[in-house]
Amino acid sequence: MDEQKTNKMASTPMKKLFWKMGLPMIISMVLQALYNVIDSIFVTNMGKQGAIANQALTIAFPIQILIIAVGVGTGVGLNALLSKSLGEKNAEKVNKVAGNGIFLSICLYVIFLLFGIFGSRWFISLFAGENEQVISMGTVYLKICCSLSVGAIGFTVYERFLQSTGKTMLSTIAQILGAITNIILDYIFIYPLKMGVAGAAWATVIGQIISLLTAMIFHYKLNKEINGNPKYIKPELNLIKAIYNIGISAAIMQGLLSVMMAGMNAILGMSKANPIILVGSFGIYYKIQQIVLFSAFGLSNTIISILSFNYGMKNKERINDCIKYGIIDTIIVTLVLTCIFELFAKPISNLFGFTGESTTEIIKICTIALRIASIGYIFMGFSVAVQGILQSIGYALRPLIISLLRLIIFVFPIAYLFTLSNNVANIVWWTLPIAEILTAIISAFILKKSYKEKI
Q: What is the pTM of this model?
């Protein structure tokens, strides 16, 4: 049967296709963000140790972002190459690309396993100063999350196998099962079993492994477009290079989230305010903000799947529709989330302070941060959508430039200037919307230039 008739990315009306594929991807990405949000909610409500435990998790968080970054970067390259090969009806290449994706996920896991065993304490010590309690908690948490990161890394690969063939609902089901497991185990491990931050880490990695195993079952049982024969798990340098020609910019872009958070932890830690309060507030805010950012990434991934497929088919009408609806839908989603966070900033922040013993001031500052920073979410959504478009049509450097602008180049100097103020806890958060607005303006010019060159 003709591939074009069987693959919905070639024939379904674009407006309908975007929501049909995009909503499951948004849910999947948001659930990924919720792993860390849920851990922080349970940990900050541990009582007297809540604020210190939250600081430990905040310091460890950049490495967790990095794990996601390399997985997502590999997955983006896989997704684009698989979708393009499916559009070209090159079955042999599809199978080899998938096999190389599995090979790469194994290699990446080994790297993080070694870091977890030998590098966890060193990394936490860089940002925890002389606070041995923070160092101890952070080391335990990070060591477990890295050493058992096989679920997080493996899932991003099998998730892309399902997404590239249009089976986004199956990847979402796998993600939901993992998230539910995480929530249940967080409560059991942290409270009845009193395992503290170690319990939060174990709940996270077990949830991720459940998602991986579920996605593997769906792939090997239902994904007929990709041959799962182990003989294809054989490294081919030309395919690995092709995957990372597309995916390396996505990995670096996601990795810059890690650099941004580590940098902000350092800047806020040197300010005139109490570092436990300020860094803790930023850590909670940033994990909440990931819900919006990962929603935008979900639609950006949708753009990559659909646009790469139709770009491979050289269907200009559908290419134009994909760009239009990709931007519009991303702006709609980020606008809705902006309204929610503006209206419910305090109740959302209060989720992290049920006990009130050590987190009252953190919750107050987090509420201020959420209300100020959410002003920039629509602009962030536009920039992330543009990045997805650029990746789909073969650009690697330009999406990276956009990430550098919104996460590093504009953020660090502006944040540092605000920390010189005597009112840093209230005004430093303006760094984030200012950076997003400036980046969105530049992104619009980059998109216009790129469209003329490629389409």
A: 0.79
